[in-house]
Amino acid sequence: MTRQTRPVEHRQFRFRPPPGSTEVLLVRHGESAPAREGQPFPLVGGHGDPPLSPEGRWQAEQLGMRLAGERVDAIYVTTLRRTVETAQPLAERLGVRPLVEPDLREVYLGEWEGGMLRFMAARRDPRFVAAMDAEEWGLIPGAETNDQLRARVMPALDRIARAHPDGRVVVVAHGGVIGCALASATGSRPFAFAGSDNGSISHLVAVGDRWVLRRFNDTGHLAGELSVAGEPPT
Question: Among 63, 61, 25, 43, which residue's Cα sits nearest to residue 105?
Fold first, then answer.
């Protein structure tokens, strides 16, 4: 009688970050205060700097609860307060002091800073429509171009990744920046990842000089909120 042997089998591959790689959890800040006609947002370095709205503060709390049980080696924010306020609940839970990366501030909107972009979008201003159709920020009067945005965003993310080999970091940034980073990482059209939700998590893995996209616009911690229609990253 011969012993029956089990057939050789192989389970489906499950992604694991390669040795030396860095996981970057890109978080879009919580919803910021509404723009009100005649009351432009204060500017910091030329960029509109609204605080979080009550909804945004709730989103920040939910984010903190979602990631509190994860290993997080560092938290990064930008020079704008909406990212700092979004990171605060998580930073307090983990006892981590956020680091500031100025080059991950939002795309500069030129003459439409301080909340004006929202009014132009609501009015369907022809210049806004042209910029969205062409997927080019530089068509907004005085705004930063896609190339200029990419030239500061990707080196900043590279610096962060190199500083944390075999680590995982949370980077709280902005819709335009996240869209730029994911488009650059995947080689997609410029606005393919525009309009990530406030408080959402996108997941990149830096493997040497290569970026791998693992997740986009995860909102599972936001009471099941699910976007079905993309919006401009305002």
Answer: 43
